[in-house]
Design brief:
51 residues; mainly alpha; 61% helix
Length: 51
């Protein structure tokens, strides 16, 4: 379910196709499900550490 993101060094961008793919991945919005999961995790961590 996780998204794999490869780090890209500026020296690796040699091809126009690769550059366009990287730009499209950067501009892709974060899904709402990720925000919900992060919020649940934060609430769980708060409950654990409040005790």
């Amino acid at each position: 379910m996780g998204v794999k993101v490869k780090p890209v060094q500026s020296t690796e961008i040699k091809d126009k196709k690769i550059a366009l793919e990287v730009i499209s991945q950067i501009r892709k919005p974060i899904p709402a499900s990720v925000y919900k999961r992060l919020k649940r995790n934060a609430e769980y961590i708060d409950k654990v550490f409040q005790k």
